Prior knowledge:
The structure holds 2 protein chains of 2 kinds.
Chain A: E1 4-9, H1 17-30, E2 35-39, H2 47-50, H3 61-65, H4 71-74, E3 76-77, E4 84-87, H5 100-111, E5 116-120, H6 127-133, E6 138-143, H7 147-162, E7 169-175, H8 177-182, H9 188-195, E8 199-204, H10 208-215, H11 226-238, H12 255-263
Parallel strand pairs in A: 1-5, 1-6, 2-4, 2-5, 6-7, 7-8
Antiparallel strand pairs in A: 3-4
Helix pairs in contact in A: 1-11, 5-6
Chain B: E1 18-23, E2 26-31, H1 37-50, H2 53-56, E3 60-65, H3 72-84, E4 88-94, H4 134-142, E5 159-163, E6 171-174, E7 177-181, E8 189-192, E9 196-202, E10 205-208, E11 218-224, E12 228-231, E13 234-236, E14 249-254, E15 257-262
Parallel strand pairs in B: 2-3, 3-4, 5-7, 6-8, 7-9, 8-10, 9-11, 10-12
Antiparallel strand pairs in B: 1-2, 11-14, 12-13, 14-15
Amino acid sequence: MAARVVTLTSGKGGVGKTTATANIGVALARRGHNVVVIDGDIGLRNLDVVMGLENRVVYNLVHVVRGAVDAERALIKDKRVPGLTLLAADQHSDKDDVTEDDMRDACEALRDHADYILIDSPAGIEQGFRNALAPADEVVLITTPEVSAVRDADRVIGLAEAAGKATPRLVVNRIKPSLVAKGDMMDTNDVFDILQIPVLGVVPEDESIVAATNRGEPVALQDSSRAGMAFHNMAARLDGEEVPFLSLEVVEEGLLARLAGAIRGGATHGGAS
Amino acid sequence: MSVRDAPHEMPTPPKPPIAVKGRGDGLRIQVTGSASPEELAESLRQQLERRSNAFFSGASVTLELPVRPLDMALAATLADVVSDASMELTAVVSTASAAAEDPAGAGTGAGSSAGTSAGTGAGTGSGSATRAGTGSRAGADKDRGRPAAVRPPGAPGGALVVTGTLRSGQRVAHDGSVIILGDVNPGAEVIAGESVVVWGRLRGIVEAGVAEGGDSAVVCALDLAPTQLRIGPALARAPEEPDRQPEPEVARQEDGRIVVDAWS
């Protein structure tokens, strides 16, 4: 099983790379794959926190790169999801302590032990980004439906293509259908209009993510949240399945909002999800 | 010379340097010999006059030039002849192998700079397929050679053809004219000594006519919405019109101001 190395990146910070890496990793593992998730954000690591595994980190990516320990030994098994392991980042080094070749070597060492290697890229387009990009077979580009995030994502597409990577696949994160319906937020089509790359998935804004992140329990562990469903769909699409996109319906709290919706002729936004 | 029974193929000896051939979807004008632009224009004018104008009125016309790089002045001159005959020049194709198309990133002259990425295909997979005017472009794509430009005036010079969308942060700079077959996204820059033609949406920054005497340069796009547009000394920003329907437009410079017309 030679692994597919998938780098999740964005350019802009805070758009949901780490959450997506954790959740897609969980979703893929629940589909029966062996998945290694690697935190590429050396110095500001947080993938282990989001996955609730920070107490168990002993060795990290920098140890592996420096040869202090075998890659396999540094992996932390997620006990909730068989098949899912984490290679954490080091908090005390920084991104210039690792090179693109180091990353490629680390992935080579892991390639035969997994079906998927997911790399959580740091924000920005500097060395950390280049390191995360170097070993990628595929790139997943995460953006939110905001002008600045899309502008940065566009830049990243150019850089990824210049680095010889295949066209990235797009995840539009944190869509709020109610704002889209009002015209206050870009919808997926607006984002696609500029980026023009295939869409891997669309994730609705979901409050349950906040609590999940704080508790270290990725939402994809359960089947109940809408964001969780979106991540599961993305995992299926990575596996090559054709999954229809979720229709993001406007779900408004409050009777008044529901009445207003009825007057507008139905509060559903059957957007391209 | 009697022309009542003139066949589609012109049988004149000696063979004129320019030939007009009828095709199912329009006309193809082939420049085969080397003659001065004036002679070519005159020969073309005569040949078009001999045809029934009513039949060909509004027909789409493809111009084939065997030169490398494409001679913009000649294309513009012949385009005028075509439009005088109530037809429209919709594509210019170079039949020289590896004609004016530069591999993106290399320049045709000392004034080109890299910074573009390889095209993701000639934009046919992108949204440009739904825009006005691409019917003829799609036709030209099937031909030998590559579609290059339609009517930008300007001194003869190498034209840099870039295939694919220019992404934010990418920059194309060239001494002569620049043709982009794709979009220019916000955050991208095109700098040309002469004209700029964007067969797609222009939403980035464009500076045209940067070279000496480049004040007559034009900027055309299927959707002209640059964040900043400069032609020679004149500078303008596209007005904010969130619901406007994109339509092909051409911008030129007049007395230091940018003037925009529909580009038909």
